[in-house]
User: Fold GNAT family N-acetyltransferase from Streptomyces yanii.
Amino acid sequence: MEPQVVNRAERSRYEVLAGDNGTETAGFAEYHLSEGGIAFIHTETDPRFAGRGLGGLLARGALDDARARGLHVLPYCPFIRAWIGKHPEYADLVPEASRARFGL
Assistant:
């Protein structure tokens, strides 16, 4: 089964699921919702899944969902912030007035 990203709203985090049966949590990105926005605060991937591109898949999935929901993004998490920096097509999710604050 291909890895997939799911929103676990009850836990305020996106998870990337992988493993033999596709149900093992390989990583997560914690967030906090506010009026019209989502602040990413912490991202982790399980070292057992290192080198498989799952962190990038997680970031892309979470940011694509934020875009689909019409949310602006505040990337407090260094991983999400760096990922947006490497993928400028996602920089528009960060409010223009906040981009310099995040180095974007």
About this structure: The mean pLDDT is 96.
